[in-house]
Specification:
Oligomer: single chain
CATH architecture of the largest domain: 3-Layer(aba) Sandwich
Order of helices and strands: EHEHEHEEHHEHEHHEHEHEHEHEHEHHH
Structural class: alpha/beta
Radius of gyration: 21 Å
CATH class of the largest domain: Alpha Beta
Strand content: 5-15%
């Protein structure tokens, strides 16, 4: 079977993570040949393999609109040239006139999230309101265009079905434990220095670049409650981003979060590591004691699986996706309640037996996820579309 992967939109975050993990498993699969259309950000991180032909896009595509129009015109020709049997679109948007059956990976819940819409209106981010509305229309029509839509969790598949009325298949994203812990190089000196300069008995960790839907403001307010409960500096928050303009992908404005650091008097209690290379992440997890995520919308949440594999107890916002992925390895709090977050963190901090229970459940739960299994099941779905 010849599979054409359209991944031009994979330039950061989950898109890159997906390709980086899926392509190596496709490369060793005996029943498939792959043509991969991707931008420079993705192709620079994908190893050369014998049965994956990388198609480089040299077009000067500025913005989502120009890329979408280019894709609709040029990608069908590239698919025919590759003599592909099935198209896999990885970036939420389908090809309008695909010459072959297509599978759409839909993994962006911002188009369906009422919380995100309210958040944008509250922030008066009118440009992003318009952008999300337009992209939401295209994403919804894309599900109607695709022969098969795949979501990374059962919870998000149900959400998409309610949104579109179309059946959506759930296929968990994977986790490769050996690959995640493979890098033998020590933690980068700059990161090690930041951690050592701010010692604390209990470190909370949140792995994310800054954006609105990860709900940083609730996290920071929750830390302020914890600081009042533990005034001796016992509790600290570690972030894998910097709350400063220009330090994060996308157009999300960090000013309000940065102001909260000063207003809540927690600047010294927050360690801003900045972006951490994926092979180094396991060192950061293991330098911390509890993983906390306040996100108000998610489709899968890879860091939950990574945290569980590293043996961290988890305190997470009460989302169906978080409950599905954690599978009993977390305590949950109301997603906009910093008080509830602080209460759940305190429960974990004060109970060694609870820590041990969550740690054991997490290690067991993380073993459920496999990129090899994901690829095998994805190819099974693709075969059903080949006549």
């Amino acid at each position: 079977m010849r599979l054409f992967i359209h991944a031009l939109g994979a330039s950061a975050g989950g898109g890159l993570t997906y390709l980086r993990n899926v392509v190596p498993h496709l490369a060793v699969h005996p029943e498939v040949e792959v043509s991969l259309l991707a931008g420079p950000e993705a192709t620079s991180q994908i190893p050369g393999v014998h049965n994956v032909h990388v198609i480089h896009c040299d077009a000067n595509l500025r913005g989502a609109r120009s890329r979408f129009l280019w894709e609709q015109k040029q990608v069908p020709r590239l698919i025919r040239d590759a003599q592909a049997d099935v198209l896999l679109c990885t970036g939420n948007f389908a090809l309008w006139k695909s010459p072959v059956p297509q599978i759409l990976l839909s993994r962006n819940s911002l188009y369906t999230s009422a919380d995100f819409a309210r958040d944008l209106w509250r922030r008066r981010d009118y440009r992003q309101i318009a952008d999300t509305w337009v992209k939401g229309l295209v994403a919804r029509r894309s599900i109607e265009r695709a022969e098969l839509t795949v979501a990374p969790s059962e919870a998000f598949a149900r959400e998409l079905k309610a949104w579109t009325g179309r059946d959506v298949v759930s296929l968990h994203h994977g986790f490769d434990r050996d690959e995640f812990f493979r890098d033998p190089a020590p933690l980068a000196p700059s990161l090690k220095e930041k951690l050592q300069a701010n010692p604390a008995k209990v470190r909370l960790l949140f792995v994310s670049h800054y954006n609105y839907y990860r709900n940083f403001e609730t996290l920071l307010r929750g830390l302020a409650f914890l600081k009042r409960r533990y005034p001796d500096g016992r509790i600290q928050l570690v972030l894998t981003c910097e709350l400063a303009p220009g330090k994060n992908p996308g157009s999300y404005r960090t000013e309000r979060a940065n102001e909260l650091l000063r207003e809540l008097n927690i600047s010294a209690d927050v360690v801003q590591l900045g972006a951490v290379a994926y092979p180094q992440l396991h060192y950061v997890y293991r330098a911390c004691q509890i993983y906390v995520t306040p996100a108000y919308t998610e489709t899968f949440a890879h860091p939950l699986v990574e945290a569980m594999a590293c043996g961290l107890p988890i305190v997470a916002s009460d989302l169906e996706v978080h409950r599905e992925v954690a599978d009993g390895a977390a305590l949950f709090f109301e997603r906009f309640s910093p008080e509830d977050m602080a209460e759940k963190v305190t429960e974990v901090v004060e109970s060694p037996s609870l820590q041990s229970e969550l740690r054991a459940r997490g290690l067991e739960s993380s073993a459920r996820f496999s990129w090899k299994s994901h690829v095998d099941k994805l190819l099974e779905l693709a075969k059903t579309l080949v006549h």
